[in-house]
């Protein structure tokens, strides 16, 4: 299956039987991002977290007594 990165428009080929290919076929909300773009975003996010001015807001889980 040929896929195109949403950020850099690079065209890659992935296996038709892979889980990623199935997700891309069956759910149009899923998009493909190449590994280079994924790594670049991860590095920049970690750098922003290290500054202390950037916060990731995650859902707070209720503290269950049981």
Written description of the protein model:
The chain has 66 residues and is mainly α. It has one domain (2-51). Helix content is 38%, strand content 9%. The protein has helices spanning 19-26, 35-51, and strands spanning 2-4, 11-13. It has a two-stranded antiparallel sheet with strand order 1-2. The longest helix is centred in the middle third of the chain and has 17 residues, at 35-51. The chain is flat.
From the structure above, extract its key features:
single chain; 66 residues; mainly alpha; two-stranded antiparallel sheet; 38% helix; flat; DUF2197
Task: Spell out the blueprint of helices and strands.
Blueprint: E1 2-4, E2 11-13, H1 19-26, H2 35-51
Antiparallel strand pairs: 1-2
Brief synopsis:
Helices cover 38% and strands 9% of the residues.
């Amino acid at each position: 299956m040929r896929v195109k990165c949403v950020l850099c428009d690079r065209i890659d080929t992935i296996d038709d039987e892979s889980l990623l290919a199935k997700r891309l076929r069956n759910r149009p909300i899923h998009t493909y991002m190449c590994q280079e773009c994924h790594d670049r975003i991860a590095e920049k996010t970690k750098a922003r977290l290290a500054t202390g001015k950037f916060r990731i807001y995650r859902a707070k889980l209720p503290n269950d007594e049981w």
